[in-house]
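To: structure subgroup
Subject: Chain for Friday's discussion

All,

I'm putting the inputs and outputs inline so they're searchable in the archive.
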Amino acid sequence: MATTPLLLATPRSGYANVFDSYKAHLLSQSLSWPQLEQLTYLVHETASHMPVEAKLNQWTQDQEEAMEDRMEQDERFVPPPSFEEVQLMKQWLAIPRLNYDQFRSVAMALRQPGIEAYATASVFLQFPHDAFGRLNGLAWVNVVRASSLALRAHALLSAYDTSGKGETFRSYFVLIVARMLWLALVPHLTGKVVIERARAHPYCHALVNLQTVEYHSSNEYGANPLTLEAATKLHRQYMQLDTDKNGLLSKTEFLNYGRKKAFVPNDSSRPTHELTRQFVDRVFEVVRTYDGELDYKSFLDLNLRIQDGVSKGALQMYWRVLDLHDVGYLDGAVVEFFLQGIATKVMAAMGSALDTRVLRSELFDMLQPKHPLHITLDDILSSLYGHTFVRVLTDYESYLDYERHAK
């Protein structure tokens, strides 16, 4: 007699059980966000001044109150330069310092197994100490915080890395956050998340913090790049650019990048970006398009790279666009080509001509390329001004920032 097959849950493998034990071990060696906040509080509460420091602290407070009274009585009064030293002294005295007994008492007061690995005599001795044998309590908290976030990020990433290729990890996130993580964590062209490197990335730490309910009402939440609000802002930027509402962005629509309300902060009247026609034309040549228009994913990748002013990946994206002839270097003619876009905007905004030859010379001097006539990707990556260089060539707002700093 035929029977309907019964679908049973797949038994957990020995590997899965081992992994669960390993994950539990990692988490036992780390502190959660609320526990880290409690640790910071306990450090401040436990630290105490030496008698001479207490007297000095009282003296700085008296000096500060005297200066405040003087300024209230005389609006023209300017504190003497020596008062800055008093304020620096006050800041130094505000740093919580712990001797070994206080160091251990903080760990005992926290009552969390995860702190024990960071509260040993060996750890205490690895920190610099002052003349009274005390360490900087906040420096210790920062070490515990960084280590805890790295361990929790490792456990989180490992849980999704079932194939070792990172694809499973991507499928657990909505498109926007997935792309933010993917672009940040995956080295150029490798297609893989290397957990040992990724666990130290701020985005992974941001992801770990979001798993704690208390964190969502903290002051730190607003600066987290992976929040719902941050993803919503990126989505609104695309929707406002797509004026014909066909789900794709034309060159004309993309030229409004940085000018729409979703880009501009409430306290600013200026756009965040004003891309040149030359740059946008090249973007549409280099990036995959559909009937000459950008889809959501391509825009998202571009948007994240344009707004990323620190990473190597962002510079590599710009290089693909700037390497006009695909020869591996930029010469004076290529730099001049992109600067013409800036010159056009200068003329439209100010009614004056931009001497692109002078600006081109300044940019070469700023980068100091190994070859005096050619700029390579390595030159840009190795320079402290690589991000400034690529943006001055492509974005009028960045050019204005460059000019303001130059003056």
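Points worth raising on Friday:
The chain has a mean pLDDT of 82.
Residues 34 and 218 are 10 Å apart (CA to CA).

D.
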